[in-house]
Amino acid sequence: GAVVSQHPSWVICKSGTSVKIECRSLDFQATTMFWYRQFPKQSLMLMATSNEGSKATYEQGVEKDKFLINHASLTLSTLTVTSAHPEDSSFYICSARDNGGEAFFGQGTRLTVV
Amino acid sequence: DAKTTQPTSMDCAEGRAANLPCNHSTISGNEYVYWYRQIHSQGPQYIIHGLKNNETNEMASLIITEDRKSSTLILPHATLRDTAVYYCIVRVAAGNQGGKLIFGQGTELSVKP
């Protein structure tokens, strides 16, 4: 299957700072990417849908000014957690959809805010 | 997308078949049944999907009832590495306008020696 790579795999940051997570489709072009968040012992929660060259669509309850999404190319989307706080500590996962409509997932990024 | 109902957890003996059920009684005619699994601290992995016919690949088999209101994922010979959370998801047909994947709680499968 197609490969989706996230970077970094884990990150620790201080409260109040911003963190950027990258999601790359390595061997296909992804017009649509999805960002999920997962807390311990819970399922994945969709945060937003990102379409290349346009603004992301956020799910209800997700603050768009806090979770900045950029999808400037067909192989790269970024999620920036701004002014991070301990409650933002979570496992963030991206998914990229190929032209056939199938979704492939990155390996996830573990964010810890101290 | 339609909701799905899965048992919270299941156990399976190593080497035996694991049968994971999923109810999707409100599925629409154009919605597919997808199965993913998530091993601890990793991203979800695609397993299989189908519309109405039974499907088989190198990982698993998918049995969909005739009325499409439920399905069963079968891992024919479970190994310890199959221990994971298995998610059953229904979504509109694949393609450029394919729907977003909404995850339910899934079934935590524990394969035991």
Can you give a write-up of this model?
The complex is a heterodimer of chains A (114) and B (113). Chain A is mainly β and 114 residues long. In chain A, 0% of the residues lie in helices and 53% in strands. Chain A is built from no helices and eleven strands. In chain A, the strands form two sheets. In chain A, strands 2, 4, 5, 6, 9, 10 and 11 form a seven-stranded mixed beta sheet that branches. In chain A, strands 1-3-8-7 form a four-stranded antiparallel beta sheet, with no helix packed on it. In chain A, strand 9 and strand 10 form a beta hairpin. The model of chain A has no long low-confidence stretch (mean pLDDT 93). The N and C termini of chain B lie far apart (37 Å). Chain B has strands at residues 9-13, 18-23, 31-38, 45-50, 55-56, 61-64, 70-75, 84-92, 107-112. Chain B has no helices and nine strands. By secondary structure, chain B is mostly beta strands. In chain B, the strands form two sheets. Chain B has a five-stranded mixed beta sheet, with no helix packed on it. In chain B, strands 2-7-6-5 form a four-stranded antiparallel beta sheet, with no helix packed on it. The chains are: A mainly beta (114), B mainly beta (113). Chains A and B meet through strand 5, strand 9 and strand 10 of A and loops of B.
